[in-house]
Amino acid sequence: MEYNVYLLATDPNNPCRDIIHSRDTELKIRVYCLNEDKFIANSNEIQLFGYANNRLYAFETIDISAEDALDVVGAIQWYAEYIEFPEMEILPEDPRPNQSLAV
């Protein structure tokens, strides 16, 4: 069984501005901490959400291609392990009240 290897680009000035990169594909996912960051969903990308350590995270792909779409959840699970919260539940919709998906 093949496993993807993920890398993380971090912003030293903002610990909530990570970008997950797949080493083997073109997949990139931007991470937002919704407790601190403003987030406007891009209708051309995939967005998923998750709670960890009393923070709500948004995960948004960057220039997603069809062949990379199946790896998004695996990359987010890897990130959950990285932040030492492997039990993060990945949500398909923004759980905040009065939030709607950009269409």
Question: SSE order, as H and E?
Answer: EEEEEHE
- Count the helices. How many? 1
What does the largest sheet look like?
6 strands, antiparallel
The global form is globular
Distance from N terminus to C terminus (CA atoms, Å) equals 36 Å
- Percent helix among the residues? 10-25%
Uncertain residue ranges: none
Quaternary structure of the protein: single chain
Can you walk through the features of this model?
The chain is mostly beta strands. 11% of the residues lie in helices and 35% in strands. The chain has 1 helix and 6 strands, in the order βββββαβ. It has one helix at 72-82, and strands spanning 6-11, 14-22, 28-33, 47-52, 55-61, 90-91. The chain has a 6-stranded antiparallel beta sheet with strand order 1-2-3-5-4-6, covered by helices on one side. The radius of gyration is 13 Å and the shape is globular. The termini are far apart. The model has no long low-confidence stretch (mean pLDDT 89).
